[in-house]
Design a protein that fits this description.
Blueprint: E1 3-8, H1 16-26, E2 34-39, H2 41-44, H3 51-67, E3 75-79, H4 85-95, H5 99-103, H6 106-113, H7 121-124, H8 126-135, E4 141-143, H9 149-166, E5 174-176, H10 211-219, H11 237-250, H12 254-260, H13 265-291, H14 296-323
Parallel strand pairs: 1-2, 2-3, 4-5
Helix pairs in contact: 3-13, 4-8, 4-14, 8-9, 10-13, 11-13
The structure holds adenosine-5'-tetraphosphate.
Length: 328
Amino acid sequence: MAVIFSGIQPSGELTLGNYLGALRNFLDYQDDNECYYCIVNQHAITVPQDPKELFENTRKLAALYLAVGLDPKKVTLFVQSEVPEHAKLGWVMNTISYVGELERMTQYKDKSQKRGDSIPAGLLTYPPLMAADILLYQTNYVPVGEDQRQHMELTRDLAQRFNRVYGEVFTIPEIKTGIGGARVMSLQEPTKKMSKSDDNQLATIRLLDDEKTIVKKIKRAQTDSDNSVHYDKENKPGISNLMGIYAAITKTPYETIESEYAGKGYGVFKKDVADLIVGALVPIQTRYNELINSPELDTILDEGAAKAHEKAAKTYRQVELAMGLHRK
Ligand code: AQP
């Protein structure tokens, strides 16, 4: 039985990118593995958050995890800040990280650019905290979107570095990305990834968007003037992105999509993409609405935190002993 860990930040309403690149794939593991799925609120505060929104988004994210079909009897679902070992091991990982390697991270470069002279230090030290999240559970596989590959490589480097210096404590984790929708791009700037914190509302499909909104956003998605449904990421990023979404939902190869839509134009294709998205999201939204105000949600998160803490504390104790951070 392998150990699986993944986390999502409650930094806004989840997007179709979060769903196709991460959340949906979490389901594949729950029957046969030891799964830890986390709401990484300490990662979310690496950029300023409105406290009320952070609180609400944490709950919404928990409900969405369950609404997509995760079974709390099979997986451990919990909030990062409720398991103190994440921050503790995060600090340890900071001490073995090099500033140069952290500054090379694409996510840091992208997010710090928007912050002018006031770049929060937490943006730079995000990857060591992510490494701590993963390593605490002696994780074998981390299902995340393709955009997280660089952070995952750093996590592996830090685990190997620690093991080399202090002895074998950590399992070296591997990334698992999904097929097709491993990277969903912005509907308005299709060379940029779809991000839940994007201010342009037309750029993202939110998991809780209603049918009318989804149809409008797909209709207005940036494409080209070719009017030919053909996959070419370099020269036709917009239509290629919509094809990626279509392929991820239906598990259809690009060639099949191309022949199906030969001569039909973008209007027909966009309508079908919108219908597919609506079809995928409506059942999730129905279940979400049942869960969001239920006391069941708190019980699940309380039990999840206790279970996660049990495992995390064992690993952290090994770290203390290996580094001489203990007294007894
Ligand atoms: N566009 C995307 N395509 C595929 N997968 C994606 N993920 C995020 N965006 C896409 C995957 O979703 C998971 C959760 O990510 P996160 O919340 O921890 O942080 P993120 O990657 O920074 O996601 P966002 O939506 O871009 O959030 P903000 O805007 O707050 O930074 C990860 O597995 C990620 O790969």
